[in-house]
Amino acid sequence: MENIVSVLSSCEKVAIFVHTSADADALGSAFSLKYVLEKNDKAADVYLNEKVSERLSFLQKFCLLEYQLGELKDGYDLFVALDCGDEGRLGVYKDCFVSFDKTVNIDHHFTNKEYAKYNYVDGNASATGEIITDLLSKMNFTLDKNIAALLYAAISSDTGCFAYSNVTKKTHVLAGKLLEFGIDSAEINRLLFKTFSLLELKLQSFVIENMKVFHNGKLAVAAITENQLKKFGASYEHTEGLVDILRSVKDVEIGCLIKEQDGKTKGSIRTNTFVDAAEISAIFGGGGHKRAAGFSTELSVEDTLNKFVEITKDLF
Predict the structure, then answer these.
(1) Which of helix, strand or coil describes residue 271?
(2) Under a CB-based contact definition with an 8 Å cutoff, are residues 254 and 275 in contact?
(3) DSSP characters over 38-102
(4) Under a CB-based contact definition with an 8 Å cutoff, are residues 35 and 122 in contact?
(5) Domain presence at residue 316
(6) How far apart are CA 14 and CA 34, in angstroms?
(7) How far is the C-alpha of 227 from the C-alpha of 234, rounded, in Å?
(8) What is residue 63's predicted lDDT score, i.e. its pLDDT?
(9) 225 and 132 fall within a common domain
(10) d(Cα 128, Cα 154) in Å, to the nearest integer?
């Protein structure tokens, strides 16, 4: 981490990137880093592939989420990628990132490709937000209540409100330090985990009704196509979190939600106790963590589902 501290300390103008379909960990990490850098007389911009999702728009409670979409500005002396396991997930910014001369990659996915000039990857960290919290502390940068709320949201999101197996003593210690700023953790967690639109509840019902169970009840799979989403008046962003319904079924070890987006098929995998989700995801060219991973494939939704059932049959 010393190299990362040195590079960030010496920069003047930073462009910050996250993965496509940015989640709360990516957004909380990116915007907290942006505003801390700005509080320390540096310039920073966050670049996103899409607008912040409606579900995560509550982050505006803590700061003005100023970000860029599209073409890059000039004059940056450092590019930083956060929570992004490989350069392909940078979306439209992939080529400009890999061709830039001074780049930093900070991530908690142990499958990270270490594609930057300076890489800090801690697969034992619960979230990229945990790493950023630790990093900012080591740099003696001053936080405030709003930045602490962003970091807390990042960590809580990727730990399932501190319920997943990726949570460690350090996770709790760093979260405790953020609570000292007086943030409303109950409200953050309510908005992250206990607040759904009517549309999202209808999609949850769809997943439950269309769930298929295999391998003596150890695998639960559901699929949703773009046409089905359109019938609901929903978009891809509304599928966030639906895979957790599949994992929550009694006796299920693997839950997989297969989704269609822009002509591609994407899969979200969650496991409970002993199956490595990242190993399964890697078969499809994806990556992630032992208990949570994802992939994208050119296969059809039906072929992806069939292949997933086939490759998991010998895991139990």
Answers:
(1) strand
(2) yes
(3) HHTT-EEEEEESSPPPGGGGGGGGTS----EESSPPS--SEEEEES-SSGGGGGGGHHHHHHSSS
(4) no
(5) no
(6) 8
(7) 10
(8) 85
(9) no
(10) 8
Q: Is residue 97 part of a domain?
A: yes
Q: What integer pLDDT is reported at residue 289 of this predicted model?
A: 87
Same domain, 42 and 146: yes
Q: Are residues 16 and 146 in the same domain?
A: yes
Specify if 23 maps to a domain.
yes
Of 174, 193, 212, the domain-final residue: 193
| Positive or negative: CA dihedral 96, 237, 107, 60 | positive
Reported as a pLDDT band with limits 50, 70 and 90, residue 88 is very high
Q: How many CB atoms lie within 10 A of CB 74?
A: 5
For residue range 33-42, what is the model confidence (pLDDT) as tens digits?
Answer: 999 999 999 9
- Distance, CA of 181 to CA of 187 (rounded, Å): 15
Q: What is the spatial distance between Cα 221 and Cα 207, in angstroms, rounded to a whole number?
A: 9
Note down the domain range covering 125.
2-193
Distance of CA 172 to the CA centre of its chain: 19
Task: Give the CA distances from residue 199 to residues 55, 96, 193, 303, in Å, rounded to whole numbers and listed in that order.
Answer: 12, 37, 15, 28
User: 132 in a domain, yes or no?
Assistant: yes
- Same domain? 207 vs 306: yes
pTM for the predicted model, two decimal places: 0.91
Question: pLDDT tens, 236-284?
Answer: 889 989 999 999 999 999 999 999 988 899 999 999 999 999 999 999 9
- Binned at pLDDT 50, 70 and 90, residue 27 comes out as very high
